[in-house]
Amino acid sequence: MKFDRVVCLVMDGCGAGAAPDAADFGDSGENEGHTLRNVWNAAGGFDTPLLQRLGILAAAGIETGGGVEAAYGRMREISIGKDTVTGHWEMMGIHLEKPLPLYPDGFPPEVIGEFEERIGRGSLGNFPASGTEIIQRLGPEHISTGMPIVYTSADSVFQMACHEDVVPVEELYRFCEIAREILREPHNVGRVIARPFIGTADAGFTRTGRRKDLPLEPPRNLVDVIAERVCPVFGIGVVPQVFAFRGFRKVKRTQNNAEHFDMLMEALNSDARFIWANFEDFDMLYGHRNDPEGFAKSLETFDGYIAETLGRLREEDLFILTADHGNDPTTPSTDHSREYVPIALWNLGMKGPAALGDMDGFWHVGAAVADALGLPFERASSPLAVLGA
After folding, report:
1. Cβ count near 44 (within 10 Å)
2. Average pLDDT over residues 192-205
3. What is the model's pTM?
4. Which domains does the chain possess?
């Protein structure tokens, strides 16, 4: 079933129930995630008629009594991981059989020592931390010493925070490029991230919008095929960086859901045939900070974005809505959760709802995209046949 254009939105962190292997990733007992359903229960529900109509709520086990107008279901991640890179890579057909490295005790001496030697100064931190909290804790010492703040998380990341008045942003980017050169196998972290900030110890420190991600180069995948045979992908938010920008047209890096939506509207007016956006506020602002009420309000705002988006689609467009992992703000953990993710497929020619059930592999997204654009894809069968368009 061929379409002229595909629009795929990823709701970062919006999981739909614990995966069968969740315990293998430290998610069991109180930490077993069921993000959307638990947010619904904790917040006393949320007003998201489009998420209901598209079947996202039904896929997450939330009973609203409303009808569904899309093909909907859940996908189980096959790759070893529960992070943004692994999730997005699997959507495009990449199977990670071993996880990207994690550093719960900080980076080892052979990594941090070479890094400090090459940048010509020491570093602070080097332990897992919340990015907003560590700059409050170590910001004053950073200002007095000029040493960058290095930290990681439950994701495979090497993050570096520097005050913009102490280490110019371009210099911070250079430090990150050095770290990226060092962090190769076996220390091939998924992303090196620059986190510039401003402020004072008295007034508090705030991260700025000049974040920069330096990802691990991905294996060849469906994005490459689309760029070669159709046109470069219009990626929004973190998506191009997750793929080291390969196969994507050059656009401004947007930093939050409101900016992503504005860029999405611009993309819909372009000649792009595959538009792929990641909306990360659910994960970044609310999941990691255990804020179910904020999570719920963000979902309501996003529902308005979906309404505006669907109103701009044509009969020859395919709309896909999904997620990349869980991040349940109601559990004691502030980390990602290994969960199923919801998926919905819709277009103006829909003849009724269709239940996809549970499918193995996030690459069912790639199968649908490839089928829609008339491209080969070997990882999974396309779920488009159920659309009835």
Report:
1. 9
2. 96
3. 0.88
4. 5-97+217-387 (3.40.720.10), 109-214 (3.30.70.1250)
